[in-house]
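Notes on consecutive records. When two proteins share a document, each keeps its own sequence and its own token line. Never mix them. Below: protein one.
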Amino acid sequence: MAPSEQTADGLTPQPSAKKDSHTQETIATLAAALDSDPLNIGLHAALAEMLRDAGNESGYLAHRIAVTTSDAITASAKEAGLSAEAIAEIRSALPLFNVATAYYMRGDHEAALHWFGHTLAIEPDLAIAHQNLAAVLDLLNRPDDAQKHRSRAYSLQRVFVEAAEHAPRRVLILYAGRLSGNVPIETLLPPNTSYRIKYAIDYASEVEDALLPHYDLVFNAISEPDIAQPLLNRLETFARRCGRPFLNRPAAVMRTQRHQLPELLAGLDDVLIPPCARIDRPPVSCDDLAAQIYEGRIGFPLILRPHAKHGGEGVSLHQSLDTLWPAIQTLNAPCYLTMFRNYCSADGHFRKFRTIFVDRRPFPYHLAIGPQWMVHYFSAEMTSHPWKLDEERRFLENPRAVLGERAMLALAAIGQRLDLDYAGIDYTVLDDGRVLVFEANATMLVHREATDGELAHKNVFVERIVEAFEQMQAARRTGR
């Protein structure tokens, strides 16, 4: 079996397993048999044991979950008094769903895709399977397919309860099912300790609001203001009627639209934010585009950014109308135009800091240093340059020493002005000590790093953010 091959199960053999060709042949045979008979629990048990022998822990655990799930279904059926014949006729896709989800949680997205396919072949209307499959397809860079399954999930079901036995509270999480643009919650509200009730409110009627299970706190995770805009009245009505503490008020989220941010942060000492204009309809001509740029007081060079996009997707830098006009025509969709400010440091590198605001207080999260103006953490090859990680570590340990007093005061003021319970800001600090703002909103991702990896030093600072978020929830629930 070549190094890039996978079994019919979607499994990639571990390097140590390749030494035993018989084991691999048996795994391939069992996987093929399961493709023909995916609910055969005996085959799952046998495959699990072979995968364990091959050193594939993820595969072993995934298929053992199928066995234990099936055992639990059978035990429940017996307790309900079902006959052996009735139990034999049960064709629940839950064991397969759990196999797929186990692979998903372990990062084996191809195997997860494979088993979600089997799951939905048996139970086409299993909403949670469509939801998780959409997440896998997003990770596999198949956004159109992901959206089809996401829409199917939320047309079937709007409320997804993820219980945690010892969770301190039940959190209702409002999110948009039709599009991306939600706060990434897995680190902030970890599933093993958080009782999460996810509510796809854009698919739900107001009548369904009254039928929600009990919750103690609401977190509005619809964080991308361009996505939230058509939902604003719906969200505001829900916030007014729910009678619970509500994190991230919809109106505050809306004020973080890129073209509104300069006005929102206007007047803050030592804060510089370039002018930005939103283009909702494609200009009819190059002259029309030039007029809109002039009205927005934007000069060249400028950055073109598609509406509701993050992470550099579709972003381009333009020195004149010669390249901007054809780019606008090609995009043919709403976009933002932002004046570009060269922020290259004296050493020839570009630095982008990220600070997270929890209850309006700033917490350092990361520093990316790269050779190009559009800096992202991994494209900047941070782990390939120890000096970059050393500089990031100094920022995390003592941001005041790295940024300076003026910048720290500016960041604190920005957190207050945003007035969000959870948000973040990407920025740099200019030579004169001012903060140059790139963006500030609630879509910012926070995640833990591998404990044995090169970025493990970041985890202690991630934990501070998570702990602050937990303390804020506790205080809001008690009215403090």
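Protein two starts on the next line and is unrelated to protein one.
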Amino acid sequence: MEKMRLGRTGLMVSRSGFGALPIQRISFEDSKAILTRAYESGINFFDTARMYSDSEEKIGNALSGVRDNIIIATKTHAKDKKTLFEHLETSLKNMKTGYIDLYQLHNPGKLPEPDDKSGLYAGLIEARQKGLIRYIGITNHSLENAIEAAESGLYDTVQFPLSSLSSDEDLKLPEVCKKADVGLIAMKAMSGGLITNPATTFAFLRKFGNIVPIWGVQRMSELEDFIALEKNPPVLDEKMMEIIRKDREELSGEFCRGCGYCLPCPAGINIPLQARISLMMNRSPYAEYLTDSFREKMELINDCINCGHCRDHCPYKLNTPELLKKELKRYHEFYEAHKSELKAEK
């Protein structure tokens, strides 16, 4: 698999990275099979986070035997230096390694003060001096923060949501990172599953030359799709751009990206799915969303207690409770329009 230089780190990473957030939803056995297949296909860059439940453990379980051949990135959502080291110790233990190649601050609301000797950035420097981490990165959903981090000279990499749906404003970031020689990692390259043709966003991101997408994978079939694209990279021609333009038109305006920062919901609402269910039903097979069990889950939206947790934690500043109400209404309308069709199938 083709490799590329990850900015000034000098790390040579596979041009397709493995995003390990989704493997927290599958078994150790299934995740081991997928991670092993990814490694054997040539993927050597694996990105996870302390926040992703048992994702780190699954990487350690599957890949500790080939540790010297892979590049591991993880993240801490710590708010202080003490917690950062606690997270780092846990991550090292989980992944059965003595060091992390790339240690990233996980979506901070603002960049930490580099001169605060007891702060987060001082913790990163200390961890690097001790040999526990090799390079320092940051992830963010704010373009302003991402650009500030890239231009600050303090971070070796920046991770930001980039896909074929990205706005022209967001697409200024690759050039900023290129000028600063900062590695650029693209999260949400499939826009949380709303992009249904992986070839389009694969080809779109590749044209920039300095973007490493981390594809979120939880099924072997998904992994095989990206392996196939690496073997025969698609060309970003006019036909493909027309598909991208149509996607952008259909997904214009505010919509949930499915990042999951809103969870857990005290009412049991699966916000990342239910806050964009109308988009999912119109862009993928919808039969599974019209079952009795799924309808019951959608009705949990009526149990929202307006605690504000989802709204306060949304990096895109969405009014999530209102969005959920609108999606429930659209769901009811979609169900009524298609229930006779489903009965006919039965």
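For the record: The radius of gyration is 20 Å.
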